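Reminder: ligand-aware prediction takes two inputs, not one.
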Amino acid sequence: MPFDEKIDLIAKLKSENPANIALQCFDPAYFQTLDSDGQRRLMACLNSGIENPDSEMGCYACQPGDYDDFRPFFAKALAARHKVPKDARHENNWSLEGVGELPDGGVLDFSAIGLPALSMRVRVGRNLADFSLPGSMTRDDRVSLEARMMDPFGKLIADPGFGGAYHSLTPGSPNEIDAAAYQKLVDDHIMFKDMSNDTYLTAAGIASDWPYGRGCYVSADRGFIVWVGEEDHLRIICMEHGTILNRVFDRLKAALDMVSGIEGLEFAMSGDYGVVTSCPTNLGTAMRASVLIQLPNLTSDGTDKRAKQIAKPLGLAVRGLGGEHTPIGADGTVDISPSARFCITEAEIIAALYKGISLLKKEEDRAS
Ligand code: ARG
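Here is what comes back for the chain with arginine:
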């Protein structure tokens, strides 16, 4: 479709979809100021939101420089999504020092607030600076990126603190696993699902060339995982069943420092916006810290409606057990995580999760 027709289509969709942030922030006058390459690139970012008008965010960056290069568009979209001023700047900081209202010694221990061991998970997204983002990668790019990761994964495998193996979905890869082994990893919540079923990711080009360049590194204890080729080049994940939240946070940071210290692995960063991710909802920290918690009283109607009502003002998102847009567990188990990713530090996110869980636990007890 020629761009002038696309602009008309956006105008029509804009009036019909007030919740689609990208459509609302698209300004044809700004678009006209771009050269033809800029127009093509910005339009590529919006494609998912045009093809899926029900989108909430409605766009994905396709090149590491998109947020900076198309600032007049993205600054507006980020402000709308993250409720920050248009000139907001993001600072990354993993240090808990100076973060308000921490328990004594900074130990975030769920047993101190009367909770049993919980499934705790922290993930960050990262993209390599010298590749297109997943929405604009060719099949060769996807395979080369996976190959680039073999050296860092080799270092992790050789490290007694990690060990483990890399599993690839790329046809013909020396690490290739078969369909049954892949399905087992999905069932074990280790590997990501087939992305070609996600209409947002498909329209964005992020799911293209499935399953080339897709795979995951899994540590010997299965508590440290790196996804390759999902929504971001890398999703680096640390999980543990326990009570001390700092453990997953600290392990993730240590592994991240080790991987990012390897020559030839430079992560895409924006001067003003922090860690660059495909989806603007993840920009800044690219971090999601979550715990699975049973809230039988707050979910006694079989839905997460009441839990959501209480969680939202606390800045917490409630998800089902299978991730985004999935139902809650039959025993009332839900996935709780702070919603904020941008203009908040990594340390503040982890502290917010602990504090939020403490408050939610009080409400659960009160509802008994
Ligand atoms: N693109 C979808 C939307 O705009 C999903 C955005 C958030 N989810 C994600 N996995 N990035 O509604």
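Residues 11 and 293 are 43 Å apart (CA to CA). The pocket of arginine is lined by residues 48, 55-58, 200, 231, 279, 281, 324 (CB under 6 Å). We will return to this case in the review session.
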